[in-house]
From TrEMBL:
Origin superkingdom: Bacteria
InterPro entries from the UniProt entry: Motility-assoc_lipoprot_GldH
Signal sequence extent: 1-19
Matching Pfam families: GldH_lipo (PF14109)
Keywords, sorted A to Z: Lipoprotein, Signal
Protein name per UniProt: Gliding motility lipoprotein GldH
Length: 164
């Protein structure tokens, strides 16, 4: 009985935290099955609500202790409604110098909110497609990591800049 009460309390508390996120405009995750294959692209289709306001963009990741690297390389591509494409290769730190994984979470899953772009104005009306692919390599090896372990979910987030 106590366990079900604590689970219910946790669910309600999580719902309250999520619903109080006033900066969120778009926030979606997609699961990665077992490992993230180097050719697997995770895509998000977005219709920004405003063509004048600036937004901050983030790549969100959930990873487990099976993630064995200190950093993460991603290729992030944004395709605009009229065909223009921007492609970036990004590097993120995933662990401190001692190897302890960064991110939030008290369980074996860490959540990372990684900056992608700041103060972006979506000037074109219509659908934008954001695609995310890993580009990991091991030191001293030419070929990339084919099956990346430890990433469980890939997400994309758009938020209003905080007024701090």
């Amino acid at each position: 009985m106590k366990r079900s009460s604590s689970v219910l309390f946790s669910l309600i508390f999580s719902f309250v935290l999520v619903s109080c996120d006033s900066n969120r405009v778009f926030d979606t995750y997609k699961p990665v099955p077992n490992t993230w294959h180097k050719d697997s692209v995770v895509s998000f289709t977005v219709n920004p609500p405003d063509s004048i306001k600036p937004y901050n963009l983030f790549v969100n990741l959930r990873n487990t202790n099976d993630y064995k690297f200190n950093n993460l390389y991603l290729i992030v591509e944004m395709v605009f409604p009229h065909g223009k494409t921007i492609k970036d290769t990004l590097e993120y730190r995933m662990a401190d110098p001692n190897g302890k994984l960064l991110g939030t979470g008290i369980t074996g899953v860490k959540e990372n909110k990684l900056w992608y772009k700041e103060h972006v104005v979506f000037k074109e009306a219509g659908e934008y497609v954001v695609s995310i692919q890993h580009a990991m390599r091991e030191n001293g090896k030419v070929n990339g990591v084919v099956e990346l372990e430890g990433i469980t979910d890939v997400g994309f987030r758009i938020e209003n800049p905080s007024s701090k």
